[in-house]
Design goal:
Elements: E1 8-12, H1 17-28, E2 33-38, E3 57-61, E4 76-79, H2 86-91, H3 93-114, E5 117-123, H4 150-170, E6 174-179, E7 182-183, H5 194-204, E8 208-211, E9 217-219, E10 221-222, H6 223-234, E11 242-244, E12 249-251, H7 252-263, E13 269-272, H8 287-293, H9 301-315
Helix pairs in contact: 1-6, 3-4, 5-7, 7-9
C-alpha cells in the first residue's frame, strides 16, 4: 500500500482537533471512504462541518469503550481516540484510562477482523520527565505511574504494549506514532495546553500564565505536518514506534513572546508554581521519521501561529474564547 487513494479508512477520534484534519486530508487525496468514530466527549461535531454533505464521509457518534463495529471493509484504522489535554484527562480520568485500555482493545479487534493496518496515536508523554535529551524512540523514559498525569501517560503506555502484543500474537499490521506538542486550528481555547492558553490570553490582552520559571522547553509541530507524518507512517511497514514532532525547541517564556509578537498584544509574564509531573524538556529526535518515512516538519512557527490565531479570532466568541 503506497497511497490512500481508493482506500476505506476509519478515524477513531475523528471529530477531535487532529482527527478532523486527518479526515479532511484523507478525502482530499482520494480515499474511497472515511468513517469518523467519536464519542464527542472532547471532540466537536462542528470540527467536521466542512465535510457535511461529502458522500464519501460518514460520522458515527460512538464510544469505542462500549464496543466497535463499522460496516464494510476497511484498509486502515487510525486510533486517535482519547482526551489529550491535562484539563480534560484530570476531569475525565476514568474515561481516559478506559479509552486507552478497553477502547484500544476494541479498536485493535476491529482492525484484526477487517485485516486493516492499525495506526496508534501515542504520545511524547511515554517518556515522562525525560533525563535524556532529545528523546529518541529507544529511550524507555523517566516515568511516574501514580502522579496526576499518570491516567493519561499510563493509558498510552498500556496501549503501546497492547498494540505490540496484537502484532506479535495476532498478526495485526500495526504502527505507533509518538506525537509531540501539536498545534493549529480547531484546538479549544480552554483546553489548558500552552498554545491555546497563550493565544487566548494575548487576544484578550491578559497576562501570560507561565508555570515554573518558563525555562522548561517544548517543540511545536503544526497540525498539517503531523497529519502528513501519520499518513506516511500508515503506508509503510514500520512497526516500531516513530516520533512525530518538531525538533526546533524553545523555552516556554520565549514562546509566550513569540505569541505576543504574532498577536500584537498581551500583558506581562506571570509565573506560577510548576504542576507536579510537568516535564522540563521536550524535543523529539526525528531521525527515524526522516530515514524511514521521508518526513520532517515544514511549517515554520510564525506561519503556523498566524493560521492558528486567525482561526481563534474567527471562532473565539462562539466557543467562549478570546475577545478579538
Amino acid at each position: 500500500m503506497n497511497s490512500v487513494k481508493g482506500k476505506r479508512v476509519a478515524v477513531l477520534g475523528g471529530a477531535g482537533f487532529v482527527g478532523s484534519h486527518l479526515c479532511e486530508r484523507l478525502l482530499a487525496v482520494g480515499a474511497e471512504a472515511v468513517i469518523s468514530v467519536d464519542s464527542l466527549i472532547t471532540g466537536a461535531a462542528e470540527n467536521l462541518s466542512g465535510l457535511w454533505g461529502e458522500p464519501r464521509f460518514t460520522a458515527l457518534t460512538r464510544d469505542i469503550v462500549d464496543g466497535l463495529e463499522v460496516d464494510g471493509p476497511l484498509d486502515i484504522v487510525f486510533n486517535l481516540a482519547s482526551p489529550a489535554s491535562p484539563i480534560d484527562y484530570a476531569k475525565l480520568w476514568l474515561e481516559t484510562m478506559r479509552t486507552g485500555s478497553i477502547g484500544t482493545e476494541h479498536a485493535l479487534g476491529l482492525a484484526e477482523r477487517k485485516r486493516a493496518v492499525f495506526v496508534q496515536a501515542s504520545t511524547s508523554e511515554i517518556y515522562g520527565d525525560p533525563l535524556i535529551h532529545p528523546q529518541a524512540e529507544a529511550y524507555f523514559g523517566n516515568v511516574d505511574p501514580t502522579g496526576p498525569r499518570a491516567v493519561y501517560d499510563e493509558a498510552k503506555r498500556y496501549a503501546e504494549a497492547l498494540v505490540s502484543a496484537f502484532r506479535r500474537n495476532r498478526g495485526v499490521s500495526t504502527r505507533i506514532a509518538r506525537i509531540f506538542n501539536t498545534y493549529g486550528p480547531r484546538m479549544r481555547l480552554d483546553d489548558g495546553r500552552v498554545v491555546p492558553t497563550f493565544v487566548a490570553q494575548a487576544l484578550r490582552g491578559e497576562d501570560f500564565t507561565v508555570f515554573g520559571d518558563g525555562s522548561q522547553t517544548r517543540s511545536f509541530c503544526y497540525v498539517s505536518d503531523l497529519v502528513d507524518g501519520l499518513m506516511r507512517l500508515a503506508l509503510t511497514e514500520v512497526s516500531d514506534p516513530v516520533n512525530l514532532g518538531n525538533p526546533d525547541e524553545m523555552k516556554v517564556r520565549d514562546f509566550a513572546e513569540a505569541v505576543r509578537r504574532a498577536v500584537g498584544g498581551g500583558g506581562k509574564l506571570v509565573f506560577k508554581p510548576l504542576p507536579q509531573g510537568d516535564p522540563k524538556q521536550r524535543r523529539p529526535d526525528v531521525a527515524r521519521a526522516r530515514e524511514l518515512l521521508g518526513w520532517q516538519p515544514r511549517v515554520p512557527l510564525e506561519q503556523g501561529l498566524r493560521e492558528t490565531i486567525a482561526f481563534f479570532r474567527q471562532v473565539g466568541h462562539s466557543r467562549g474564547g478570546a475577545r478579538a
